[in-house]
Amino acid sequence: MTRVEIIPVGGVPEVRGGDDLASLLATALEPFGVRDGDVLCISTKVVSKALGLVVAPDQREAAITASTARTVARRRHTRVVTSVVQIPSGPVMAAAGVDSSNAPEGPLLLPEDPDACAAELHRELTAALGVRLGVVLTDTSSRVWRVGVGDIALGAAGVASLEDLRGGTDRSGRPLTVTVRNLADELAAAADLVKGKADGVPLALVRGVAGAVASGDESVPARELSRTGSDDWFRRPSLESVWTALGLSAEQEPIARMSPEEDRVRIARAVEVALLPRPGGGSPRATAAVAGAHRIVVTPAGDSWQDGLEAGALAERLRTALGAESIAAPLPAVQVQIQAPDQQEDRP
């Protein structure tokens, strides 16, 4: 049975801009007798500090925008709006990974190319310590379908980040056809058990993981661990996906709350979305208004058949927007009725 050790490495001083990070880490590692096959898991935050990636607090939002490759979603919590975005190196992160915790000089940006930073540290630490090792740069993130956060690999060098088990068999002899193990993320999460968030330990040594250290083509950078493009099954949440299909631009999209919202709030948002200008056209000529707890009345601009078509199109946009609101948390049935401008009685 394999024995794995996860060792916290203390003695790393507070890192500042311009520091020789590899030298500081090598000095801290000396008492631990680093061996061939060890993996060094380093908090990306100390790399950001050494690179001087500090921004003024009042420039935080601008820094998030500048670090965004693609906006996935925005959510409101009390008065704070959090942007969940894809960063240039591939991962999807809250606030583009811009973080103020354990950052006495101000919010810190993530390195633009974490794999390049990992590769540089790998070269320098290999030379300084004289052993065959791997380097993983770690940061905290959440996962689709899971509550809470854990550390993932943002950068990797000298590590077999992916272990492809396809073509093998399980203990029962069944063929493995889809299993690819994300070893780099497992190493990052394991290291976080001893690094912690408040203990001031930015470095951990993971020892005893067979096959973790690799070289040449077997070394897989962390950018290969992010699903992007057509491989990204969760490119946007349900609300934003439907809003995109309805033609809303990122600037037009409302901001939903993180916490559960009342039905009336969600219905009102659906009306707001449906009434926004459509792609390739202006604002709908028909109007829509909430009339009662679960009823929306659409009123054509006039009596012509074109006005009727406009009202019908708006009603369908409303039903689609209401459907988007119902995916995550079902809404009671909401009636969408078209009412002629001069009619007092509703008609379906």
TrEMBL record:
Domain spans labelled Coenzyme F420:L-glutamate ligase-like: 12-208
Record's protein name: Coenzyme F420-0:L-glutamate ligase
Keyword Metal-binding: yes
Pfam family, one: F420_ligase
EC identifiers of the protein: 6.3.2.31
Keyword vocabulary terms for this entry: GTP-binding, Ligase, Magnesium, Manganese, Metal-binding, Nucleotide-binding, Potassium
Gene Ontology MF terms: coenzyme F420-0:L-glutamate ligase activity; GTP binding; metal ion binding
UniProt xrefs under InterPro entries: F420-0_g-glutamyl_ligase, F420-0_gamma-glut_ligase-dom
Major enzyme class: ligase
Domain of life: Bacteria
